[in-house]
């Protein structure tokens, strides 16, 4: 578990943290359950490859599990579902909306709390510094500043390292993986939530170069997950209504609501939040979900608005009038003409280049950090503290290098100020002068962005100051992200981007009549797009952030160009992190070479599938459960009569049974002394659908006596009779489309032949089997086709 | 064809216009191709039902066809795809983006043209009326006004009725159906495009209560479709590059770009356009498509902006400064508090009620109109002219009922005016007075909306005037939509909604401090949402339309409430029209009772499937093609050896062959004198992938000699070897999810049994078989479960 605490758990090749779910076909001579003990090697039939790379790659190195988004249609489910009354259906619908409402409400409140805490802690810290500076006690100021930041970072890092290692980093890649069907352990628990909240407050107040935006998304997803399961793991509410949500499908929907609420709370961008969830985070999307996420974000916005109204009356300490539209440039009269397209295109191109460069270098830095973080908890904390020290010293000392600039009466804001915020900080300058670098560095990150975005201030900053700012935040943006505190990526990239944008605006000089603040906004947008590769959602977020609709067309152009340029070099930063973490994320588009491979060939390269009979002996079930790690087993009936034909001795594919349901059957002693089919009422007396969905039970916790071992279990009523299947001649490309579009965990492969002696089932495919990396390991010759680019 | 010209082609039950694609299972005794002539009845095996309702419902009453969105992976495709060089892949990508660019550019230009034409025609008409009124020649004014409108309507209706009947109505439901996989004939041709452009200009200039927004979406989709296929049907460009687009998948993507460009051009709402396509129109959606539609709308916005810049310098005749943000309320200082939530909620509720009432009544009106329209071309034209006369008379005469109101010096706009636009029309009033009803009625629809949305004008309108306006537009909104001219639904609903909103604002009086213009905006939004049931996209469209971000939270609440209320009563207006038109649209969510039915049972209720052998006799192919209307046939090899087993006499499911490919094989004389498998080079010499995709060829156009009838065809290389399949025990609910998610046209059903004598294939499912209405016809007992609501 310790190893998971850093941002990057596994530095090895991608695909190393694997759910192990392969199978074995029962050979003819093994059909007799008596003779077939799984303690002897099962994997006899292995036609083409002597090793089974698909199953072995990283087998059981981690607890990552796939999620069951498929509806498990077994007899019990069907009965449970049929017996639901109209009232229960309404309860379910009501509860869905109630949860969406609560997610929005709690996200709004927690976002408010975080904002208040950060603004106050950072505010008092900055006011104290102003005091030191005014008394010219520069060294004491440095010690105080560094000390406060050091202890804030220490507390955040210790919280994170000791109590919830998964709270480090932004959390967005893991949410993306969850919605794709990959469950990272301990990702959405109560510990993670609390550590994320307080860790984020600590880390952002400490002036580190990271944002609260990513963590807010994760916080919101945690809230959603906890609400859906009725509380923390150990203290769950046993509310009867909540039983409807005891499945991965509904949790997925609520977490989608959560992630959009988080973005909404971070940027006060309700539409942007919905689109962010749609474009970047979610894998499956339905129209009804669009509507529910929209409702959640509407609630968040109302909560935030109410809070701002309260704060405007001065009850929030140092929070002031900042509000949450952090970079409001609505008063800028934007006027641009055809000629202004040229600088806009240049910004886009450079943003794309810088963004992909940032992705590339950050990848290297994260790999390096991972080596350090792996060494233990102390190393993690020390790394975080080192970064904090460097940041503090730079932020405090660099402003002394800047020349004091005289205040110009044309400035619209007070100049100079000694307030905690303000655009013209006096710092060490004489009266009537201000220090432009202190304005940018000795402030909160939000204020820094607001200052550099400020319009009608073309003479405010000296270009060396902006250059120093840009260079410093490039370094900080690379070294800060990987440390063990909750950290978002949005703000560091915005800071870097605004610096480069404003610099470019200065260089353009008289060529253009766009405002320099506008250049800063566009620079930030271009770098975001160049690194994160989002378009529509970023566009809307920037729209709602800057509150200026007239910027829309040029923002669109900048974003499109930056994304296009960036895509030429490397994938988006989230994809890079997903790959570094070894999360088996399934891409939307199959690789072109996947058309040249059939699922039958894939199944041949895997160990044979393990099947169970419809009425199976207890000893074999125990064997199978103890000696394999598969999560589902095909159920095949033998020697059945096919209705309407003369065929005898046929086999029948009955369906797929989950490991959890087998364990439940053993635990509940669902045993028969003879081979017979059970009746409906027998099953219903023994099981109910809700209990059956419990996943935590392990086979090791179930005791079966010697006598019971000789008895039988009727698996039919527990079997999902409607698994999705493909014929063995199906190409991997199309199978993958099916797998992803329908949200599967297991996909059965049926033979294309029909006749006596043909096995009822050829194999079973899981997420891991469809990952390009794993397939290429088993079929290296396909790699030569890999060169040919995707053309979809 | 004539019957298709009205908005509603078929008034019968839904699902009546059907593609007939069912099949027959080959019985044991029919295996010998010699003895099996399809001239004799094939449908012997019919286990459960004596009739075959699924196949019969409306069979061949229309030419509606399903689209092939699946990739047809046969040998030729694979070869074609493998042989594509890197350069060709780049050509393809470049072309995709070029087409997206061209769609945006042309949509922008045509939208400009339409706007210019309408503003000028309507402007000169209105100026002439002002002249008549000032000379007090009221009757001449009436005659002139009615006459001009009459002739404009006549030209639009004649164009529509005689040249392109499909150009009537908005076209959005058909686009929605197309993207769902249903091809309506003549929907995206050059005729339709031209008639839609000029018909729309005529109808809107005639002052009818309809908008240019819906038609613009259709126009844009036509442009996209024509570009993708290289020109009109008879004069296609034979550009080599375009061959890549000779498939339904790529056309689907381009038409999605087109529909979002259309909305963008209509409302100058680029993000709203993308979201509209996403939420309302598209069935499948990929992240890369999001990006490309966004690019298209960006191009549209740039074109429109350039055009406005030109027009601002006065070169556009009467176009003036209108611009395209038609209802800009950005100067309204919105301030609202918790108490304002109550009127906002009331607006939402009433909007939802009115919207669903509108849907209900419009449904009845459309059914009535359909009876009239069916009687022939003359009736259609007469109906349109009657509506035009009524509209003109009301618009001209009603203002005389209004009392003249004195101009208030506090008004921000000139008062009174005799200009073509303007918020305070003098009309028949003495100097210093204005006629508030003339301001709303005797103007273009766009200007009417702008006037009623206007802010700081709480004393402008008398409440009886608004009441008359509202009542009139309720009537017009119901009677105008179904006539045979291009008409959009957006504007009529906005007009109605703004009237009711403003009325409500007046009633609220001093209870609220929201502006009355704001009430009008919210009323329009609520009615749109109550009728069309969109949320996010409407919200963004209104945001971009009103250019005021502060309205966002209350707009969201209004939209959500209105949609929730409306959904309690009936489906959205587009769904109603889809059903009226009998388009076999496949819904996103399966009905709950579909879980109680397996696809095997469904297949049993259908006529048996018609299969072909891998190497089939020509005579049987000709028979099958002539005597069935199916569009695809499973290909099954018999007596094959299963590798790796001792099984003999097995059958092998080779895949699915399309009718078009069979016809091509016959036409190209792909005949063998003996039963043998052909070699790769033979096929490639005879066929190429592009020709194979031609769909127009009919079996009747192919001549086969008596001698050739005895020869064989090797179907293997032409067969799609990777059709999607389901096992017969799959529930219809899950099968439908698969069908829709992957975008299928045919889905094969394989048996769950495995053994000698079991048929290789149980049946084949098409879109029609999965439609709730058709299933219920065949299985009436399921209808009793229907009551239980969906709970997804």
UniProtKB/TrEMBL annotation, chains A, B:
Record's keyword terms, sorted: CBS domain, Chloride, Chloride channel, Ion channel, Ion transport, Membrane, Repeat, Transmembrane, Transmembrane helix, Transport, Voltage-gated channel
UniProt membrane topology term: Multi-pass membrane protein
Gene3D superfamilies named in the record: CBS-domain (3.10.580.10), Clc chloride channel (1.10.3080.10)
Domain CBS: 719-784
Acidic residues biased stretches: 20-32
Ranges annotated as spanning the membrane: 92-118, 138-164, 289-308, 341-361, 381-402, 466-496, 549-566
Segments of this protein annotated with the region Disordered: 1-41
CDD domains with a match to the protein in the record: CBS_pair_voltage-gated_CLC_euk_bac, ClC_6_like
Primary localization class, coarse: membrane
Recorded family membership: Belongs to the chloride channel (TC 2.A.49) family.
Descriptive protein name: Chloride channel protein
UniProt organism field: Hibiscus sabdariffa
């Amino acid at each position: 578990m310790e190893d998971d605490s850093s941002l990057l758990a596994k530095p090895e090749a991608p695909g190393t943290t694997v759910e192990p779910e392969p199978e074995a076909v029962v050979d003819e001579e093994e059909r007799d359950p008596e003779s077939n003990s799984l303690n002897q090697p099962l994997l006899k039939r292995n036609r083409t490859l002597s090793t089974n790379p698909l199953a072995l790659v990283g087998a059981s190195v981690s607890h990552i599990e796939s999620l069951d988004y498929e509806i498990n249609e077994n007899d019990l489910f069907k009965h449970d579902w049929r017996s639901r009354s109209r009232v229960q259906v309404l309860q379910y619908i009501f509860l869905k909306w109630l949860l969406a409402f609560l997610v929005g409400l709690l996200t709004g409140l927690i976002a408010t709390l975080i904002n208040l805490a950060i603004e106050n802690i950072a505010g008092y810290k900055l006011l104290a510094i102003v005091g030191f500076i005014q008394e010219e006690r520069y060294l004491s100021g440095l010690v105080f500043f560094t000390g406060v930041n050091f202890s804030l970072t220490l507390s955040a890092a210790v919280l994170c390292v000791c109590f919830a290692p998964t709270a480090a980093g932004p959390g967005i890649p893991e949410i993306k993986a969850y919605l794709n069907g990959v469950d990272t352990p301990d990702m959405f628990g109560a510990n993670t939530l609390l550590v994320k909240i307080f860790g984020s407050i600590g880390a952002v107040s400490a002036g580190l170069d990271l944002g609260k935006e990513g963590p807010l998304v994760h916080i919101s997803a945690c809230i959603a997950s906890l609400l859906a399961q009725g509380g923390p793991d150990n203290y769950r509410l046993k509310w009867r209504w909540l039983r409807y949500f005891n499945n991965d499908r509904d949790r997925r929907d609520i977490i989608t609501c959560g992630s959009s609420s988080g973005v909404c709370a971070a940027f006060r961008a309700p539409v942007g939040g919905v689109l962010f969830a749609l474009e970047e985070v979610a894998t499956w999307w339905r129209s009804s979900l669009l509507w529910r996420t929209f409702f959640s974000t509407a609630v968040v916005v109302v909560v935030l608005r109410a809070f701002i109204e309260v704060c405007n009356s001065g009850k929030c300490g140092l929070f002031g009038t900042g509000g949450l539209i952090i970079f409001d440039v609505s008063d800028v009269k934007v006027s641009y003409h055809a000629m202004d397209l040229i600088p806009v295109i240049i910004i886009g191109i450079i943003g794309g280049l810088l963004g992909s460069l940032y992705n590339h270098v950050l990848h290297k830095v994260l790999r390096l950090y991972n080596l350090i973080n792996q060494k233990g908890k102390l190393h993690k904390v020390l790394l975080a503290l080192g970064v904090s020290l460097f940041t503090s010293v730079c932020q405090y000392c660099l402003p002394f290098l800047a020349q004091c600039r005289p205040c110009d009466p044309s400035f619209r804001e007070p100049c100079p100020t000694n307030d905690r915020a303000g655009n013209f900080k006096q710092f060490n300058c004489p009266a009537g002068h201000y220090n432009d670098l202190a304005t940018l560095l000795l402030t909160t990150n939000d204020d820094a962005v607001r200052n550099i975005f400020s319009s009608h201030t073309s003479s405010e900053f000296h270009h060396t100051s902006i250059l120093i700012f840009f260079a410093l935040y490039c370094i900080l943006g690379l070294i800060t992200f990987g440390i063990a505190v909750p950290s978002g990526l949005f703000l560091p990239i915005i800071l870097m981007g605004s610096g480069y944008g404003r610099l470019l605006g200065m260089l353009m000089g008289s060529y253009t009549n766009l405002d320099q603040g506008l250049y800063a906004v566009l620079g930030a947008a271009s770098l975001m797009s160049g690194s994160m590769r989002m378009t529509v959602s970023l566009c809307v977020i920037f729209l709602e952030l800057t509150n200026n609709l007239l910027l829309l067309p040029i923002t669109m152009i900048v974003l499109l160009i930056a994304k296009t340029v960036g895509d030429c070099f490397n994938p988006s930063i989230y994809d890079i992190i997903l790959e570094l973490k070894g999360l088996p994320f399934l891409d939307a588009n199959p690789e072109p070479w996947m058309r040249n491979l059939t699922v039958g060939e894939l199944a041949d390269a895997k160990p044979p599938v393990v099947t169970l009979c419809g009425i199976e002996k207890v000893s074999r079930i125990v064997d199978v459960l103890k000696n394999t790690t598969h999560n589902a087993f095909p159920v095949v009936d033998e020697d059945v009569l096919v209705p309407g034909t003369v065929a005898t001795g046929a086999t029948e594919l009955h369906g797929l049974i989950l490991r959890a349901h087998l364990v439940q059957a053993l635990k509940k002693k669902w045993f028969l002394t003879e081979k017979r089919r059970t009746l409906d009422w027998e099953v219903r007396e023994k099981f109910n659908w809700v209990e059956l969905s419990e996943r935590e039970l392990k086979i090791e916790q179930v005791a079966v006596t010697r006598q019971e071992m000789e008895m039988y279990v009727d698996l039919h009523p527990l079997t999902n009779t409607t698994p999705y299947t493909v014929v063995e001649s199906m190409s991997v490309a199309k199978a993958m489309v099916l797998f992803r579009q329908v949200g599967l965990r297991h996909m059965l492969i049926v033979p294309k032949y029909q006749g006596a002696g043909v096995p009822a089932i050829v194999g079973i495919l899981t997420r891991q089997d469809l990952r390009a990396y794993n397939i290429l390991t088993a079929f290296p010759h396909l790699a030569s086709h890999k060169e040919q680019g995707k053309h979809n």
